[in-house]
Design brief:
Chitinase A, domain 3
């Protein structure tokens, strides 16, 4: 599992604040993040580094970003701004594979 974790990249995705006709919220912007230490993400998102749930511990699932977290993440955003007034942002992860 550690090899898969090593390949994870992070991004922040901005979703429309209002649902479309089908009831979903479209991704409007997507910004890649510079590498961030897992321990920082765990601190900012109040994640227990000893959590038995691997997806929770490594922040694999999409997580809503609040104002305080947006400020902490902003220096890591590549070519974008986390604007919570325009979009609802979420921390997401992906791999190149």
């Amino acid at each position: 599992m550690s090899n898969a974790i090593d390949g994870i990249k992070r991004a922040v995705a901005g979703y429309s604040k209002f649902a479309n006709e089908s009831g979903t919220h479209n991704i409007e912007v997507d910004y890649e993040l510079k590498p961030i230490k897992l321990s920082l993400l765990q601190e900012w998102f109040d994640v227990d580094p000893e959590d038995e749930d691997v997806a929770a511990r490594y922040l694999i699932n999409s997580i809503e970003i609040n104002e305080e977290q947006a400020k902490a993440l902003q220096p890591y955003v590549i070519d974008g701004v986390i604007d919570l007034d325009k979009y609802d942002f979420r921390l997401e992860c992906y791999t190149d594979e």
